């Protein structure tokens, strides 16, 4: 039987900060995309754990090692970092300090939110552009132990930046269209 | 000059409510522009380097293990064990909450995760026996700061990965005894609170129940023992220890307790991935800004600013800790570690202060920040779970925060309280 109490989680975001562990109190019905994301995450986590544990086991029991395992594990770690970040951008769950903006309302809040959105777009734009340049420059580079083309690894950052940029542009359009008198404190 | 540009841009962009990872990217852009080294590839390259870090893989492993333990019934057993240990004393549920916090800190390395798991289990029980909701939330919240101190702490992993040359194993070990001391200090406060608030409840178990609880809790209790033993005696590294913890948690919850289904495992993976990516994006961005902090010689400027205090380590530590306490009130623990550890560590080295002792004070101080208003992640988590008003919680938290600040100062003034146990635990190394 499941422990029901452990499933009572805090609200998805509280005033002042976006928290790290913040599953929704009433999560929306699970979609196929969510299920695929869960399978992707489970595969990566179990892969990372298996690779790291396997290497430790080989070293401790047989005094040998399998060099590609550490490199594969690190590559999976990069995948979960940047692809997981896309999901967090989509759900607007990255950590941010909003203790000052929640004090504003009306036009001042709208302009501050638009400024923040434009700054985010600028940062993401630079990550996208710089990330693409980085991928192009490492197209002919292969990893030492696994012989993987580094473009497959370095490409994760510009892909994340691209997706986040789309989400940010979409939210900017919503912010611009929204009447200033609908921006309230908190 | 660069120091003030960095701090000015940091606080300006933070005040706009931009995600901290992007704030750090913007700080890196400003420092890059200021230093005249404009190259769009530097920041993404540094971010990829920051994420491509083997020691940091311990973070997702411990996060994953903690999530599995919460979902798979291990947390319930830990709470029952704590109740069995001390429940018969007057105000037993409060003591049990603190003992459970100590035990839980040995299972998961995060204060927010600990508060969410323990709050979900204990707050309803505490309210049921008549505890003031604010007081019940306060005891859970104050215990949650043990998560970043008692090993395996994800915050010590971050610190060890951020400052080259620091051993994560030694950071883990230095937190063990002070963490238990803080737990005991919280119990002393609870002793007086029970008498002031007039709580009388006790919890007793029959012999059969006690045996069952002990039997059920043994795998939970064994995990930190095996984990710390394995890391201390060099059987595995902290990263491999994280993988061990995850496998152990899956095996115990799926095969022994049989409370974790495959579907739960998928959900837990997605939750752990979410937490990992949020933390790791900040880590990656902090690596990029750290590169420019070094190039702009910001640590040297910080050293110059504190030069009058360098000959007096205690005054220096008091000044740094005052700054950290204030910054901890408005910003979360993880970004604070990533941003300020590279800034303060060169100063600490120059003043001849032990880096592990400073690491303990650094994480403990910023850890207290998660329960201080106006921005305290654990405060909001406990309020959310317990349906408690923030003011009600903060008022009842004051004695606990005070004792934690006193413990911070005691550890600051008496370094041997943390360094001597570290020497014992590391066998004199």
Description:
The complex is a heterodimer of chains A (186) and B (429). By secondary structure, chain A is mainly alpha-helical. Chain A has five helices and no strands. In chain A, helix 1 (32-62) runs antiparallel to helix 2 (67-90), helix 2 (67-90) packs parallel to helix 5 (156-177) and helix 3 packs antiparallel against helix 5 (156-177). Chain B is an all-alpha fold and 429 residues long. Helix content of chain B is 78%, strand content 0%. The longest helix of chain B is centred in the middle third of the chain and has 34 residues, at 262-295. The two termini of chain B are 41 Å apart. The model of chain B has no long low-confidence stretch (mean pLDDT 88). Chains A and B meet through helix 1, helix 2, helix 3 and helix 5 of A and helix 1, helix 2, helix 3, helix 4 and helix 7 of B.
The quaternary organization reads as heterodimer
First and last CA, distance of chain A: 39 Å
The N- to C-terminal Cα distance of chain B equals 41 Å
Query: Helical percent range of chain A?
Result: 55-70%
**Radius of gyration of chain A in whole Å, from Cα?**
21 Å
- Report the total helices of chain B: 21
Give the DSSP E fraction of chain A (strand runs of 2 or more residues). under 5%
What topology does this entry show?
The complex is a heterodimer of chains A (186) and B (429).
Chain A: H1 32-62, H2 67-90, H3 106-137, H4 151-154, H5 156-177
Chain B: H1 2-15, H2 20-35, H3 42-51, H4 58-71, H5 74-86, H6 92-105, H7 111-128, H8 133-144, H9 154-162, H10 168-197, H11 207-232, H12 238-256, H13 262-295, H14 298-305, H15 307-310, H16 313-330, H17 333-350, H18 355-368, H19 377-386, H20 390-413, H21 416-425
